[in-house]
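User: I'll paste a sequence; please echo it back and then give the predicted structure.

Assistant: Echoing your sequence first, then the prediction.
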Amino acid sequence: MDGDQNHHKPKGRVTLLDVAKASGFSKSTVSRILDERLPTADNPSARHVREVAEKLGYVRDLSAANLRRGSTGQIGVIVPRLTDTVMAMLYESLAKAAGRNGQFAIVATTDDHPDAGRAAAEALIRRGVDGLILSTARIDDHFTDELRARHIPFVLALRQNGQSLAAIGDDPLGGYLATRHLLDLGHRRIGLITGPDYATSARGRLEGYCKALEEASVSLSSDLIVPSTFSIESGELAAETLLKLKDRPTAIFAVNDNTAIGALSAIASFGFSVPHDISLVGYNDIPIVSRLPVPLTTVKVPFDHIAEMALQLLNNASEGSSEVRIATPSLIPRKSTAAPRSH
């Protein structure tokens, strides 16, 4: 009986050598036939090798290929969650930018848990990615130190830690622009729905808020600053806290469009309207906010530019560099902001 009709699956991972032995061809011939980067050969020998590989359960070892070639053309992207439109937009921008470079972006999610970030990174590294782009940086986590110690190329995106390569938006400027817009309209009681303290993006927007108030000689009131987790639900709860104040704000700046959407829900549940009773500003300019019943004034973040910068840093920077590239945001005024009503 011919060998191709009676071969036994080897124990453990099936290798090119196993396929070569079972098919009767040399390892180099089998490698060429099974290399997905090359045009698919359609002749009896090639079909025979592919049939044997399939019967044996051969799966190409990407990490081994990476070691041989020095590159797989794959970039690992780690985000907290793809249900967050901001993170989905970042990933799409990275995928498009990678495609223009002849690279392919693979995404993994962490739900903003540090341990999950480590597991996601390990899974991507095992797939042989050329490097990692992380939008999960936390001030209270030292995961990037571990990656650096292992000589794994990585770049941070949207958030930074002050020690690593990063491509981010100018968050202090964005926070300043949003708050300055409300001040220019005449608001003085401006509530802030800020983000988690471990995220430099949230801290930067808070910094910009404080700077704008200081410039306008408006005193900072701690009761007007309420934290959130960047989610719609947390934005709703934070807005409820602000609206229950005896001297409630006449405007709210939410440092994320999701939290602004949550705030809209809370404002409606209190019987108030935007902007007649309270003005509202978001941040990021996700697609839905321009199509809400009251289109949302927000700060636009140039995700495509940030993605391009992140890939440039990943592909070109030398090990040990801590260069940070910063993209400029812009205020997009819409119908959710207006001058405060006179009391």
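The chain has three domains: 6-60, 71-169+303-327, 171-301. The chain has twelve helices and twelve strands.
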